[in-house]
Amino acid sequence: MQDTKEILELIIQRKARVGIIGLGYVGLPLLIEFSKAGFPVLGLDIDSSKIEQLEAGNSYIRHIQGDQVATWIAQNESADATTDFSRASDCDALLICVPTPLTKHRDPDLSFITRTAEAIAPFLRKDQLITLESTTYPGTTEDELIPILEKGSGLKAGEDFFVAYSPEREDPNNADHSTTTIPKVVGGFTPACLEVATALYNGVICNTVPVSSCRTAEATKLMENIFRCINIALVNELKMVFSEMDIDIWEVVEAASTKPFGFMPFYPGPGLGGHCIPIDPFYLTWKAKEYGLPTKFIELAGEINTSMPRYVVQKTLLALNELGKSIKNSRVLIVGLAYKKNVDDARESPTFLLWEALLALGADVDYYDPYCPVVQPSREHPQFAGICSKEWNDIGPAGYDAVIIATAHDNVDHDQLAGMSALVVDTRGACSPADNVVKA
């Protein structure tokens, strides 16, 4: 059995150096919170531009203010960030917060995890804690991460170093829940691993939820996101059905939400976006095939959600037709590039699918998003990189034939938008009823 005394003492005294690998929407908030709690911290990322921004006291994530970063640097002399992964040996705990996307064939892409493991393995030392936070299928920590760490370090997991899995539960720009106030599920490779990982997270998180294994923790994260995926698919399907019945789905959801039990509101949209809901369910679908088991609910939900951009385009076609216009050569403005309101994160945004579909039909397409002034490069939609958002004051004079609301940011006046547009296709229930507003 491992001796946990030394590392637990370092954690209790807040002398354990915490390394965060991957300084994105999950890793950067976690780095700041550990630093604020008094732990010496080290950020590790392959993107040198992120390190340069942090060293300058700037933030590259909109909902994390630059002064938060500047204060973090100023108040903690033991805070640092680097691209040098050999410095993993300086850390007592290493938390891996890297992306887990899908391949073009919609299979799990663990390359970010495996490359990270290969990068840090030669620099591991005894009694370190390695925790994986990236969302993945059950078994990844034990079957993929640990073998690479053991091979590259010559050490044995559960004997020489501690391993745990604790899924991220970050919800960017959520005013009610932040990194420290969201309970954290923790699963350990061994009971000693669980004890150490739980103690570390207890230093910054309001409540930890220990579970029996890494696999259970991995499954917990998938269940949370599959629950959302399926319920979003349900309300998207109801939106299409109710539309044919001339019933407003948003009014129905609002009315149903008055029931104080047995109902939880979910809202329709133009499709799924973000780094979790469009991707994570398919990690379980892929893994379930190994056991010869179908995942019918997940696959059906996926079919419905991925069909929503086509539905929105079809509603736009019909609405333009009513005005005697063809989609070909029509000028269309998509409002909202981010995958959800009030954030600058456009990963997996359905706006890109709407954009591609409209271009394929011959439309001339622009976008407006105050949170995303320039389209950032992406693997999935590289053709849009560098395109700039239109200015608000130019929307009315531009005379767009149709405006599609794909994301309803709070700082956008959607009723004003409707007042200066010939046609608005509203996928978010953002506009008040008007003759030129079509719900989709």
Characterize the structure shown.
The chain is of the alpha/beta class and 440 residues long. It folds into 2 domains: 5-212, NAD(P)-binding Rossmann-like Domain (Rossmann fold, 3-Layer(aba) Sandwich); 266-439, Rossmann fold (3-Layer(aba) Sandwich). Helices cover 38% and strands 12% of the residues. It is built from 14 helices and 13 strands. The strands form 2 sheets. An 8-stranded mixed sheet has the order 3-2-1-4-5-6-7-8, sandwiched between helices. Strands 10-9-11-12-13 form a 5-stranded parallel sheet. The radius of gyration is 24 Å and the shape is globular. The mean pLDDT is 94.
Descriptive keywords:
five-stranded parallel β-sheet; Rossmann fold; globular; alpha/beta; 440 residues; eight-stranded mixed β-sheet; 12% strand; 2 domains; 38% helix
Offer a concise description of the structure:
The chain is 38% helix and 12% strand.
Map the helices and strands.
Blueprint: H1 5-12, E1 18-21, H2 27-36, E2 41-44, H3 48-55, H4 66-75, E3 79-82, E4 93-96, H5 111-120, E5 129-132, H6 140-153, E6 162-165, E7 184-188, H7 191-202, E8 208-211, H8 214-244, H9 249-256, H10 280-289, H11 296-322, E9 331-335, H12 350-360, E10 364-368, H13 395-398, E11 402-405, H14 414-419, E12 424-426, E13 437-439
